[in-house]
Design brief:
heterotrimer; B: 445 residues; alpha/beta; Aspartate Aminotransferase, domain 1; Aspartate Aminotransferase, domain 2; seven-stranded mixed β-sheet; four-stranded antiparallel β-sheet; 14 helices; 14% strand; C: 479 residues; three-stranded antiparallel β-sheet
């Protein structure tokens, strides 16, 4: 499946019925060295664009918003001890969590990779 | 004069560079209608005249009264080195160590301070200080709300009533609930505290020794709180921690208190410092500044303000607290006090407080009609039951130059006859004996 | 440098504990006793004194270095006021709370009352409380007072506090601690809160607007009276963050302008030392209608001229244990008394003169985003230097090598690569000229050898420290 992006720099990718969520390479680069990822609680339900998690670097703290509605099924607990994984691969091993009960039609409100790249050029 | 060094010639040169004709011209952006309508202050004076006024005020400050009062603030010895070292201008005229390379003095001292607080309280992570004891208890309560995502705090009513007022005010603003549990005599009512913890309780807060002077074991309370997913917050008196089991040993999650007794003079209410320490897993929920160890670009050890993303200057309204300036210099005094006494001296000091208080307790209990109300152990404070209202007795003894204790009637309805007496190492046997004699005299008349 | 714990030798001690003159008590019960003594360092007094003396020498401070830290007013701390503050060391704060105790502490009580009166006159407010222990604590207290005022009027709709995006982070954080939601208004191209957006955000659900004036760019907001009027029209109150009061002493009184609540930072405007990050003191002043909601207790002057501590039943309760950071308040009272009316006016005039002088001399080399007469501080941007890959932080670190404490950098947030300079009134032209020369030199090096700035500082005991490592390792006390 392809990744979809929000204008707030989260990405989401469907994996079967679940959605994998993370922040974009661009966001990770902007934040600098990540020092902490505040992972959501498993079982937490979020609506699309609600605050889902938090992320910190030395000089900044940002909210991570849910790119789609759903319930947190799994979190990337490797980030607890190794938040630098987000810097190393924000769109791969630095994923944040998996959501279940997702309505794939919500992806329509997001940007595809090409549109996101274009959006970044305009920033 | 305002300690402004520039001469009229220099001012002219500066104005020429600026391109302004006068200093007043620089205030032109301020519309005329907004100018001050009044600024009615007396003319200035010399240092010498100033000190005469200040000395007059200080002379009428009650410093000659022999204090057998505490109320959270204690008259302890302060080693001379504390004043001398904390008066180093490099410490007291610096500010927040935002530029670590030229602030290693303050930063390392605060790291040492945090280490001392952890060792005193039996905790794993301390911040770099809070304002005072009362606001420290309040910040701990707020911290428990964040950690547990609950909205109710159980407060033992044998906590310092001034502190409880502050906590209640802080919680009120956030629409969180504070439930007070009345003491059982002079002790915390452990059973009722345990019964008050429910699934909505963020924390139960106790003080050890409590406002009446009683020392208790809160280990079981910690276990019961944890069973319900609540935290235990213990407010402590640092000098007592030379002898009394630490909050950490009792299983507390957050330890707080007022650090005044560690090398800070009475000074009519401040500045003192509050301390707060917790378990490592809660470190991100601590309020205020934290100093951390790291290395520089050549591998040399150094110290920086760390975990700043919790704080107001980055996280703004989502910060763990609004605190910015803390009580750094007072914390430094606390550190130097502790390092000056050292491991052995600190314990000796605590024992001396205990011995003197025990002596006073038996002397005063020997006065006719007087008895000790504390059911169990005490440290350097205890509560007496007098045969009559304690307030007029205290007033009478003040006239003899002795502050006999804190009468409890105004804080605990129905305890009008109760008097809490504090005996630090500074009180001599002669002073204690005189207190007993004066008390006897006052009660007989 | 070693930690004090690393200098510890078992059995050594620094100071002797007094001998006991009472009989040894029966032992403290084991069940309540700590398992082992507190592991404090064991050092001789000389080792202790050398350790902390040498540590102190690793600090820059006002008494050793020019310290133009914007928004912090790092003025010279007069020595006589230090002496004055120390006079009250032996006064117990619980004495006036005892029956008959007030008459024994008339001196310090008169000082609390006197300082409140001085500050009320200086700020144009009707009454002042000295209880808040720092600026942010004053903000929270002020907003709690505002909340109590609305509540007493049965006005429960108000749930928002408005702050400009250039405000100190403490403003939104303090309002949030008092239970409010925050609305942030961006800065307009003219350098202050966007008036149109402010008007749109204003409603009957807004409890308060928090303003810093002059603002954090050092500019006096020409619309400030209008902002006050708009807030009042909607029933909101307006809060003055006194961080920048040094610019307007004797020139403008926030109370006259229309502000309802103010906090002042005694450690900024009134010459009390900053202590390496505190203690500060943040008294709060209010207009008449808000007096009932000030915290308890109040120090009142009675008919016979004596001073009493009185409960304040309608108030927001207690925000600190006693009367505030008293020994700091004593220094501020002494400072105001020492300088007097003319001295305080001279303070603001010279603070503004000095800042404009530095601004005029640096604006050729550094980008000045808002080129207009400033008040007590000026905010530059290192955006020109950034073209050579030099950041504000690199210039700051170079200044350290040249013996100057850096200005505030990266604040306010609405200026990219901000360098905010506040010289204060107590600096001489000579000192400022030396600083200006080094700033100009840094701009030249940024063009010619940017790497040299990125390596700075090289003269300090440690170089640039790895903050990411610190945040990840969380080593906050020694093992």
């Amino acid at each position: 499946m392809a990744k979809f992006f929000t204008k707030e720099h989260e990405w989401v990718e469907m994996d079967g019925a679940q959605a994998i969520v993370g922040i974009s390479e661009h966001a990770a680069h902007e934040l600098g060295d990540i020092t902490f990822v505040e992972l959501p609680k498993i079982g937490k339900s979020v609506k699309q664009f609600d605050t889902l998690a938090g992320i910190e670097s030395v000089k900044a703290a940002s909210d991570i918003y849910a790119p789609v509605s759903g319930k947190v099924a799994q979190v990337n607990d490797k980030l607890e001890d190794a938040p630098e994984l987000v810097n190393q691969g924000a769109e791969s091993e630095g994923w944040i969590c998996r959501l279940e009960g997702v309505d794939a039609s919500e992806l329509g409100a997001l940007l595809d990779a090409a549109a996101y790249a274009k959006y970044l050029e305009g920033l | 004069m305002g300690y402004c060094p520039n001469t009229p010639d220099e001012i002219r040169e500066m104005l020429a560079v600026i391109g302004a004709g006068s200093i007043e011209e620089l205030f032109a952006p301020i519309p005329a209608e907004l100018r001050a309508k009044s600024f009615d202050l007396p003319p200035g004076m010399s240092e010498f005249e100033l000190m005469r006024i200040m000395r007059e005020k200080a002379a009428a400050g009650g410093a000659e009264i022999v204090p057998f009062i505490g109320g959270g603030i204690y008259d302890h010895i302060i080693p001379a080195a504390v004043d001398h070292l904390s008066s180093r201008a490099e410490f007291y005229t610096a500010y927040t160590p935002y530029q670590p390379e030229c602030s290693q003095g303050t930063l390392q001292a605060l790291f040492e301070y945090q280490s001392v607080i952890c060792r005193l309280t039996g905790m794993e992570a301390s911040n770099a200080s809070l304002y005072d004891g009362g606001t420290a208890v309040a910040e701990a309560a707020l911290m428990s709300l964040r950690i547990t995502e609950r909205n109710r705090v159980v407060l033992d009513a044998s906590i310092n009533p001034l502190h409880r007022e502050i906590v209640t005010g802080y919680l009120h603003g956030l629409s969180a609930e504070a439930v007070e549990v009345a003491p059982d005599g002079c002790c915390s009512n452990l059973k009722r505290l345990i019964d008050s913890i429910d699934e909505e309780t963020a924390a139960v807060v106790v003080q050890n020794p409590n406002f009446f002077g009683s020392v208790q074991d809160f280990s079981e309370l910690a276990v019961k709180a944890h069973e319900k997913g609540a935290l235990l917050i213990v407010s402590g008196y640092p000098i007592a921690l030379g002898l009394v089991a630490s909050p950490g040993e009792m299983g507390a999650d957050i330890a707080v208190g007022d650090g005044q007794s560690l090398g800070n003079p009475l000074s009519f209410g401040g500045p003192y410092f509050g301390f707060i320490a917790t378990r490592k897993r809660f470190i991100r929920n601590l309020p205020g500044r934290i100093v951390g160890e790291t290395i520089d670009n050549q591998g040399r050890r150094g110290y920086v303000l760390t975990l700043q993303a919790r704080e107001q200057h980055i996280k703004r309204h989502k910060a763990t607290s609004n605190i910015c300036s803390n009580q750094s210099l007072c914390a430094l005094r606390g550190l130097i006090f502790c390092a000056s006494l050292g491991k052995k001296g600190f314990e000796e000091l605590a024992l001396l407080n205990y011995d003197k208080a025990q002596y006073a307790k038996s002397s005063l209990a020997g006065v006719k009609g007087v008895s000790v109300m504390n059911a169990g152990s005490t440290f350097n404070e205890f509560t007496l039951s007098l045969p009559k209202d304690a307030a007029p007795v205290v007033e009478k003894l003040l006239a003899s130059g002795v502050a006999a204790g804190v009468p409890l009637g105004q804080y605990y309805p129905g305890m009008d006859n109760a008097l809490t007496v504090t005996v630090t190492e500074k009180r001599s046997k002669a002073e204690i004996d005189r207190l007993a004699a004066l008390l006897e005299e006052a009660l007989c008349s | 440098m070693q930690l004090i714990f690393e200098k510890s030798v078992p059995g050594r001690s620094g100071v002797r504990v007094p001998l006991s003159d009472v009989p040894k008590a029966s032992p403290f019960p084991d069940a309540l006793r700590r398992k082992e003594p507190v592991l404090l360092p064991e050092v001789s007094e000389l080792d202790l004194v050398r350790h902390y003396t040498n540590l102190s020498r690793r600090n820059f401070s006002v008494d050793t270095n020019f310290y133009p830290l914007g928004s912090c007013t790092m003025k010279y701390n007069t020595k006589v006021t230090e002496n004055a503050g120390g006079l009250f060391a032996g006064c117990h704060p619980f004495l006036p709370l005892l029956p008959g105790g007030e008459r024994l502490v008339q001196g310090p009580l008169s000082l609390v009352h006197g300082l409140e009166q001085q500050l009320a006159e200086i700020t144009g407010m009707d009454e002042v409380t000295t209880q808040p222990l720092a600026g942010a604590h004053g903000e929270m207290t002020g907003i709690m007072v505002i909340a109590a005022y609305h509540k007493a009027r049965g006005d429960e709709r108000r749930k928002y506090v408005i702050v400009p995006d250039s405000s100190h982070g403490t403003n939104p954080a303090s309002a949030a601690m008092a239970g409010y939601e925050i609305v942030t208004i961006p800065t307009a191209p003219y350098g202050d809160m966007d008036l149109e957006q402010f008007k749109n955000a204003m409603s009957e659900e807004v409890a308060a607007v928090m303003m810093t004036c002059p603002n954090t760019l050092g500019l006096f907001n020409p619309h400030i009276a209008e902002i006050c009027a708009i807030a009042h029209q909607a029933g909101a109150l307006i809060y003055y963050d006194g961080a920048n009061l040094n610019a307007i002493l004797g020139k403008v009184r926030p109370g006259d302008v229309g502000f309802d609540v103010i906090h002042v930072n005694l450690h900024k405007t009134f010459g009390t030392p900053h202590g390496g990050g505190g203690p500060g003191s943040g008294p709060v002043g209010v207009k008449k209608g808000l007096i009932p909601y000030l915290p308890t207790p109040r120090v009142q002057r009675k008919g016979d001229g004596s001073f009493a501590v009185e409960a304040h039943p309608e108030g927001i309760g207690r925000v600190s244990d006693f009367f505030g950071n008293f020994a700091i308040m004593a220094r501020a009272y002494a400072y105001i008394t020492l300088l007097g009316r003319e001295g305080l006016i001279e303070v603001s005039e010279h603070a503004v003169l000095n800042a404009n002088y530095i601004m005029a001399r640096l604006k050729g080399e550094y980008e000045l985003p808002f080129d207009q007469t400033c008040m007590h501080e000026c905010a530059f941007s290192a955006s020109r230097q950034l073209q050579d890959g030099v950041h504000a932080i690199d210039i700051a670190k170079y200044l350290i090598d040249r013996g100057f404490h850096p200005p505030t950098v990266y604040f306010p947030l609405n200026v990219k690569e901000a360098i905010m300079i506040e010289p204060t009134e107590t600096e001489s032209k000579q000192t400022m000229d030396l600083f200006i020369d080094v700033m100009l030199e840094a701009a030249r090096i940024a063009r010619e050898d940017p790497e040299a700035l990125r390596q700075a500082p090289v003269t300090t005991p440690v170089g640039r420290l790895d903050e990411t490592r610190a945040a990840r390792a969380q080593q906050v006390c020694c093992e």
